[in-house]
Design goal:
Blueprint: H1 2-23, E1 27-28, E2 40-41, H2 47-57, H3 63-81, H4 86-103, H5 113-130, H6 137-151, H7 159-176, H8 186-208, H9 218-233, H10 246-253, H11 258-281, H12 287-318
Antiparallel strand pairs: 1-2
């Protein structure tokens, strides 16, 4: 009953935000870099930091993680309305990641490890944000990650928090996983969710002593890293908006449904996560096997990407 009530509370909050966004013209206008063609309400992902605030008052989450998620969410929401310089955004990310480190007691770990985890965390947050480009992809991918983390016995005490955040994904998904979305997550949604998921990734790896759980983020990770490398080779500014991810080529140039592409990405990650969980349960999961699996997926991805780009070039040559 508590979670049913929470679902309707989150639904009410989201509907109230739509009225606010409509009144103050918080919208996303399509441009040449966009994958959408109509004006859409921006910032519907504000439901994610709001959900963690509710979880905090229910006693489900620490103040450190709450402040971290709300901080990046607040700065990102301001940036959604009125673009900020990189300094306040980066400063908020740094403070948030340090709060995550404090919450997980990482400062007691080897000093050389902290810069590595810090860079990976900052990279993950930005990669997750850049991957938010078509209807449904962010919320479905986040929901798969939350379900996967919730399935692990080591996260049993965090189930109320994970369920709360999962419900916020369901509520947001009702308005976003559509052919014509009513709202987009905005930076407030994608960045706050990225930090939340990054927290659970670090927590899971530390408590399980199993680095292979990084495969929970492999689909996004491979697409993001390969795309960044490709853009660097082309001497493009990797911090500028673009349409160079494989999912964008599939949805835009190849003409596949945004929702279908989003479901494919989330479904593929679900299959990978199931394999990881099964392998760990059967004591066959190791860093070497995970590395081999990651290499295989990367090669498959490169093959698919090359094929799709050739198809795109053929289509353009016929025009």
């Amino acid at each position: 009953m508590i979670y049913i009530a929470l679902f309707f509370l989150l639904m009410g909050v989201e509907l109230f935000y739509f009225k606010v966004a409509d009144k103050y013209n918080i919208i996303d206008k399509p441009n040449s870099r966009s994958s959408h063609t109509s004006i859409t309400l921006r910032g519907g992902g504000i439901i994610f930091p709001i959900a963690i605030i509710i979880a905090f008052f229910r006693g489900y989450v620490s103040w450190e993680l709450t402040v971290a998620v709300v901080l990046v969410g607040l700065i990102s929401f301001i940036d959604d309305i009125r673009p900020l310089s990189q300094l306040p955004r980066f400063a908020a990310h740094v403070v948030a990641v340090l709060l995550v480190f404090y919450d997980l007691d990482l400062f007691s770990e080897a000093i050389w490890l902290l810069p590595i985890v810090f860079i990976l965390m900052i990279g993950w947050v930005n990669a997750f944000n850049f991957m938010d480009g078509i209807n449904g992809i962010t919320v479905l991918y986040a929901l798969i990650a939350i379900i996967s983390f919730a399935y692990l016995p080591l996260n049993e005490t965090s189930l109320p928090l994970l369920i709360t955040m999962g419900l916020s994904c369901v509520v947001f998904g009702i308005f976003n996983v559509r052919r014509k979305a009513k709202t987009f997550a905005g930076d407030v949604g994608s960045i706050s969710m990225a930090l939340f998921l990054g927290y659970f990734m670090i927590k899971t790896i530390v408590e399980s002593d199993q680095l292979a759980y990084i495969l929970f983020f492999s689909v996004y990770g491979i697409d993001a890293v390969v795309t960044i490398i490709s853009r660097l080779i082309k001497k493009e500014n990797i911090f500028q908006p673009h349409r160079s991810h494989l999912y964008q080529y599939l949805a835009n140039e190849m003409g596949y449904s945004h929702v279908a592409v989003a479901i494919f990405y989330a479904g593929l990650q679900l299959v990978i996560n199931a394999i990881v969980i099964y392998s760990d349960a059967s004591d066959s999961l190791s860093l070497y096997s995970a590395g081999g699996f990651l290499l295989m997926m990367t090669l498959v991805y490169l093959g698919v990407r090359t094929f799709v780009l050739r198809q795109v070039q053929l289509k353009e040559s016929r025009v």
